[in-house]
Design a protein that fits this description.
Elements (H helix, E strand, L loop, with lengths): L11 E9 L37 E10 L4 E9 L9 H4 L2 H4 L5 H5 L4 H12 L3 E4 L2 H9 L11 E2 L3 H9 L16 H8 L16 H17 L16
Parallel strand pairs: 1-4, 4-5
Antiparallel strand pairs: 1-2, 2-3
């Protein structure tokens, strides 16, 4: 395993995807229960929290492992995330994901508890190289925020969507914006893979975390093979070019 902070080009990269109850993300960048003046760590029972107070929730997590040298994609993790949905707002219970995929509110209510999924994901990604298709969503809005609290836990690689933008070259639809616009995952998959279907979606994006992570993984491989993906290139990540 590559050590955290190493500068060698990574060969193995985890590609993560989440499905969520909304687009706003978690409400708190840091643990709202933490006492900055006390060295004692406060234990939190995540599964008893009133989830309506903490913003949108992750309901599905999928992770694939990409080997650049072996040119392989391996499924390594998939889980629904269980909550006491009786604490959810009406907006959360009627989320887009429940209307546009085969995932149901009832499945989430009976799934493996959040606390268990959180620990499993944290253990899996710790110290690894990791990226997503849209890091500003999956990471900045969710996994880097409370209650996942994963900032600094792994090495972040270049956003696959950033690299796909420069290959798909979609014209901007807003006059006040410059450069190409970001392609949606299904468009990038169809365009960059040139109609091939190594992820096996059969022409239809499933909007489930593991299936989407697999699509993004094959996009990453194709971009890397063509020289259009540099894992350690963070240009544009924090507002730069």
């Amino acid at each position: 395993m590559d050590s955290f902070g190493a500068f060698e080009l990574p060969d193995t990269i985890l590609v993560l995807d989440t499905e969520t109850t909304g687009l706003e993300g978690g409400r708190f960048a840091e643990n709202p229960y933490a006492d900055r003046f006390s060295p004692k760590r406060m234990e939190i029972d995540y599964d008893l929290m009133d989830w309506s107070r903490f913003g949108d929730a992750v309901v599905d997590v999928g992770i694939c492992e990409v080997s650049l040298s072996r040119h392989t994609v391996r499924e390594v993790y998939s889980s629904l995330v269980g909550y006491d949905t009786s604490t959810w707002t009406d907006e959360m219970r009627g989320a887009w994901i429940f209307e546009n995929s085969d995932l149901t509110l009832e499945q989430v209510a009976s799934a493996k508890p959040f606390s268990e999924v959180r620990e499993e994901v944290r253990d899996l990604v710790k110290g690894k190289w990791l990226t997503t298709y849209n890091v500003q969503f999956d990471l900045d809005k969710f996994l880097y925020r409370f209650p996942w609290d994963m900032k600094g836990l792994f090495n972040e690689c270049r956003d696959i969507m950033f690299a796909a933008r420069d290959v798909c070259k979609l014209e901007q639809t807003h006059e006040d914006r410059s450069g190409y616009r970001y392609p949606k995952l299904d468009y990038a998959y169809e365009t960059i893979l040139k109609g091939e279907d190594p992820a096996g979606i059969n022409g239809e994006q499933k909007h489930r975390a593991l299936a989407d992570a697999k699509m993004a993984s094959y996009i990453l491989l194709e971009l890397n093979d063509s020289g259009a993906y540099e894992p350690l290139d963070m240009s544009g990540r924090h507002g730069g070019h």
